[in-house]
Amino acid sequence: MKKIEAFIRHEAFEPIRTELLEKGFPSISIVEAKGSGRQKGIVEQYRGSTVTVNVRPKLKLEIIVADADKDLIVETILRHARSGEIGDGKIFVLPVEEAIRIRTGERGDEVTQVHEDEE
Amino acid sequence: MSVKKLGMASLLALFAALLVPGVASAAVEDDLAAKALELDMVWVALATVLVFLMQAGFMFLEIGFSRMKNAGTGVAKVFINLAVVTIAWWAIGYGIAGFGDGGLADFVGTDGFFFHFDQDILGTAVTADTSLLMLFGLAFCAVSLAIVWGTTLERIKFGAYALFAIIFGALIYPIVAHSVWGGGLLSDVGGKPVMDFAGSSVVHLTGATAGLAALLLLGARKGKYGSDGSARAIPGHSMPLVGLGVIILWIGWFGFNGGSTFVTEGSFFGEVMLNTQLAAAAGVIGASLIIYLKTRTLDVGMAGNGAIAGLVGITAGCGFVEYWAAPIIGLLAGILVVYGVLAFEKYLDDPIGALSAHGLAGIWGTLAVGVFGSPRLIIDNAEEGIVAGPGIWYSIFDGASWSSSLGQLGVQALAVVATFVFVFVASYAVFAIIKATTGLRVSEEEEDAGLDISSHGMYGYPEAFIPQPEYPAGNFIPTMAGTPVAPIESATQDQA
């Protein structure tokens, strides 16, 4: 199994989610992240003084999939998240040792799959 | 219907009385005089309500300029302050502010302490009119007190509000009000009165000066100044609340200035109210223009400060200057407030700009009467030998006596200096005592956590700080293209 962590722009989330859902990957977690990178901060003017917000709001997607599905997910994210400007974000792929579904206790790749009509 | 009938009946009675000459017409005249006074009091009552509404204005203005973690404390502050100052004013303040006898009257009033039934504690009769005027005066005192705290937001100990309100409401504000409006020293400076129609110096400069004293003893908010000493913005959390606050203050000001006529005679309050509006409008334009030229952005809060500055600026002159002068006074007040905020910002952490909007504009407004005071409108109480000089404008363009106009300008300047010195010394002493005894500033941890949770044990915006559970019935079951319907139904059942 692989964990895919992607830092993306807010506006890229909805198209990614829609397409992954269509392809049968409904399980996505998102975290509202703030971070800094090559993209510069925002300077706010307030009553004649300025305050620089050095971190920008981003979304962090977290998706755990079976090894075989990894490329499909990465491609989908790339296709929708890329605008070509600085600040598009990054994707990281991490190995996952184990996965357990809390409700049933089942383990392994099964956990990352869409619900089957088994129960 | 009954009102209409009543009106008809009294009209008929009036006609009947007019037809019978002699005794009856004298009675009618008395009756009319009584009705005129009652009409005056209705106007004062309406104005009183408007001025009390300004408390909501200060509440929203200060909360909007604070961070989310300090939102609730601003609400509690207004309640406690208004309550404490009411009791202090009723017990002592109104008596000090009012008129008095003998040499003591130069400094304090001697009548009107502790109204208890139809008389005060010294046995002086109290009429319903007196009670209303006392309430009107209280509304002004409460406004002055509300101004004090603008400089102290986000770091002051809550107890200081109540402690200072007692002294301010019982002594500091009343002594200033007595000096100008209660027949004290400033109401007759060598035959010239200080002209402050509704309180540019008495109310606004007083509040801002006490705020300065508090600020000097408090110090800046944590994080306001960088390690190199440069000022950093600490943006308030809600410009919409600031806007609401400014508009409420603006509306309240029609009572503040208009009600200061005390009478409905000749509908003079209409003139005062139009002056008020013209100055407020010009204040917004002046402040917006200057902040745009200086920073190339139209600062939202600064536009609001401009409105307040324009209103404060016209407060002294609203009953003494002509319509053409009102926008000039407001415009200059608006310009002044921007330069004031930018200059103070480097050294003093004044989160809402009270020092500029109430202090500088209050000083300017008081002096402006000496510049634009119209011969048609200024105080002319020849019987008691108190005659004001016109503004120097009328000496330059209209041939009025220079000695008279310059003398008046000097008296206005004296009012500014005397008010500032007295209020600053008195307030600094009170705040220093508070600092030495109960403490004036919260601890660093409390400031970091915010005054809402540290002083009040609750958040002004709980959801912003406490995680909320999801709404269980709102679970979204995704529909997947190409997936049979059955699994989704089973998923739904699982949840049920």
Task: Name a few traits of the molecule.
heterodimer, A: four-stranded antiparallel beta sheet, two-stranded antiparallel ribbon, 2 helices, 18% helix, elongated, B: 496 residues, mainly alpha, 17 helices, globular
Quaternary state of the chains: heterodimer
**Percentage of helical residues of chain A?**
10-25%
Low-confidence stretches of chain B: 482-496
- Give the uncertain stretches of chain A in residue-range form: none
The main pleated sheet of chain B reads as: 2 strands, antiparallel
Tell me, rounded to a whole number, the average pLDDT of chain B. 91
Explain the overall architecture.
The complex is a heterodimer of chains A (about 120) and B (about 500). By secondary structure, chain A is an alpha+beta fold. Chain A is built from two helices and six strands; from the N terminus they run βαββββαβ. Chain A has helices at about 15-20, 70-80, and strands at about 1-10, 30-35, 40-45, 50-55, 55-65, 90-95. In chain A, the strands form two sheets. In chain A, strands 2-5-1-6 form a four-stranded antiparallel beta sheet, covered by helices on one side. Chain A has a two-stranded antiparallel sheet with strand order 3-4. Chain B is mainly alpha-helical and about 500 residues long. Chain B has helices spanning about 1-20, 25-65, 70-95, 130-150, 160-180, 200-220, 240-260, 270-295, 300-315, 325-345, 355-370, 390-400, 400-435, 445-450, 450-455, 460-465, 485-495, and strands spanning about 380, 385. In chain B, α3 crosses α4, α7 packs parallel to α9 (about 300-315) and α9 runs parallel beside α11 (about 355-370). Chain B starts with a helix and ends with a helix. The interface between A and B is medium-sized, with 18 and 29 residues.
